[in-house]
Amino acid sequence: MKQRSRERVHDDLVRLAGARLPLASLIDEAGRLIARAVPYDGACWHTVDPATLIDTSFRAVNLPSEGIRLARNEYLDHDYNRWVELARSRRHSRVLSEATAGDLNRSPRYREFLRPAGFLGELRTSFVVDGACWGCVAFFRAAPDDFSSQERDFAHELAATLGCGFRAALLQAGGTATAPPPGPGLILLDGNRRVESLTPAARRWLDELGFVGEPTHDDLPYVLLTVAERARAAAGDATARVPGLSGRWVVLHASAASGRQPGRVAVILQGATPSSIAPLIAAAYGLTKRERELTELVLQGYATGDIAARLFISPHTVQEHLKSVFAKAGVHSRRELVGKVFVRHYEPGIGPLVIEAATTE
After folding, report:
1. Which of 106, 162, 107, 155 has its CA nearest to residue 133?
2. Does 351 map to a domain?
3. Is residue 68 assigned to a domain?
4. Are 127 and 264 in a shared domain?
5. Averaged pLDDT, groups of 10, the chain, 361 residues long
6. What's the maximum distance between 2 C-alpha atoms anywhere in the chain?
7. Within 13 A of 77's CA, how many CA atoms are on the CB side?
8. 260-297: b or e for each residue (b if 16 or more CB lie within 10 Å)?
9. CA dist 10 to 19, 157, 358, Å?
């Protein structure tokens, strides 16, 4: 009976992933369907920059919204079943109790977050499709119940389907910005993760990321926290890209800052250039490595013969690859590929991925 129920849920999720819903609607409906086969008491959904594997937003379901604690655990703590590990593993879903060999207290995440919230079971899945990770989810189950190996395997089977849904949500049309983008902005965080200073342009970019409040007192956007924690953990640089409220793409680049106080991080926020966003959009359309190489040359204005020479393939093969690219992108010509696909995404027009906390009924 359970197997038939999971098969129906899987089929429903496949249809849902192809419906091209806005991300928040996709998460809510996917959560409702999955609960029929894998009951849970709480969940936390994330979007991910597939190029850097930094999670860029989250939607909490029946959980406290604690973005900075999530970011610190993911990038600074030595914990189990981290999103990057699941994305790179052959198995994209794992249960915390199995990873800790039954000793959950070995996990900082369990000690500091799950146990105080009354949860015992945690099931994590990274949404990987065509080799790229577009999102992830953690399901929680109240004590004394845990997740089974069968539920773990079912979640793994859903990874690619949910990845397709998250990837499609990235391409949904959204608002249109009319004002010119601000110049690069800088935010300097001290070792206690408080805003030490910021430029006027940075305040405008915070607005673009949906931030409402006072930067020196209120929680900063989740993507800013995660990119800063990644830079702090690596004692180097970290980058993430995310659509803003207006539809304009925002690039956040964090670097460990020097100075007397350890742990300071500088974050630069700026608008995306075509070259910085084109690889992500190409991946979102499911283009193969060769198709991405060819598309990049098309964007640079190269003719068929020049592309063939650069890629050491025949002009006929170039045309065959272009047919595949056009089909995946839903266009019929190079002009449409450049003007209606890539320009539309690095200029205003893609929907926001700002995600608010939700509750289940």
Report:
1. 162
2. no
3. yes
4. no
5. 81 93 93 96 93 90 77 84 95 97 96 92 95 94 96 96 90 54 93 93 94 90 93 90 85 88 92 76 82 86 93 95 92 83 53 37 34
6. 65
7. 20
8. eeeebbbbbbbbbebebbbbbbbbbbbbeeebbebbeb
9. 14, 8, 23
